[in-house]
Design a protein that fits this description.
single chain; mainly beta; 3-stranded antiparallel beta sheet; 3 helices; globular
Length: 220
């Protein structure tokens, strides 16, 4: 039987998907964005979980933005946008961004470029919706090196949010001193440094994935 991790061989990027809910702007992190046609205007496809707040926003407005993150985009941006729901939180509060006249945001945290997209078709699966959209506006040029999902996982040591199509539940690990595991309640990161007990970490230690403080970790 094929292991789910085999699918990690499929290439992905890391993107911020900008949405709106009436007059409120929000955003989330996605890794499944691809160009599907070089027509004029060009067509792209994006996959998003049907239980997410961003999905409901797109269903209402029919538009979204894609901001292409670069390797210089701080991990804190991915943590803020990727591991919290925007329904009851202002995820953009501490994120540099601009809101287009259409009401959807573009992220400006060392991003390479951005696109404004209008949905023209949708395909639904059991958990995900894939939107096909035309690019109606975007950056005049690109700067920086786009962040790949491989870079995010291996260099930034990031993990996928639970609603991501690439999410794989982390293997259970234990603190060698207590025999217990400590898990970030925001992003699901499991502390697994067997040479240093979790409770010995300094109080200002931050989660390496979402940059949340030590106090959000829970004992499992």
């Amino acid at each position: 039987m094929m292991k789910p991790t085999i699918l990690n061989n499929i290439s992905y990027g890391v993107y911020a998907l900008g949405v709106k809910d009436g007059s409120k702007a929000s955003a989330c992190i996605v890794n499944t964005v691809m160009q599907v046609a070089n027509t004029q205007p060009p067509l792209v496809a994006v996959s998003i979980h049907r239980d997410s707040y961003s999905y409901r926003c797109i269903e209402k407005s029919g538009i979204f933005t894609v901001s292409v993150l670069s390797e210089a985009t701080p991990g804190t941006v991915i943590g803020a946008l990727g591991f919290n729901s925007g329904e009851n939180t202002d995820k953009l509060d501490n994120i540099r961004h601009k809101v287009l006249v259409e009401g959807v945001p573009v992220i400006k945290e060392n991003t390479c470029c951005w696109f404004l997209c209008k949905v023209i078709n949708k395909v639904e699966t059991g958990t995900q919706a894939m939107y096909v959209a035309e690019i109606v506006a975007g950056s005049e040029e690109s700067v920086g090196k786009p962040m790949t999902y491989e870079y995010y996982r291996h260099v930034l040591k990031g993990s996928s949010p639970k609603l991501s199509p690439t999410y794989i539940a982390p293997e259970k690990t234990f603190d060698k001193h207590t025999g217990e595991s400590f898990v970030c309640s925001v992003c699901g990161y499991v502390y697994s440094d067997r040479s240093f007990g979790f409770e010995e970490l300094p109080n200002d230690w931050l989660c390496p994935v979402c940059k949340m403080p030590k106090r959000v970790f829970v004992r499992k």
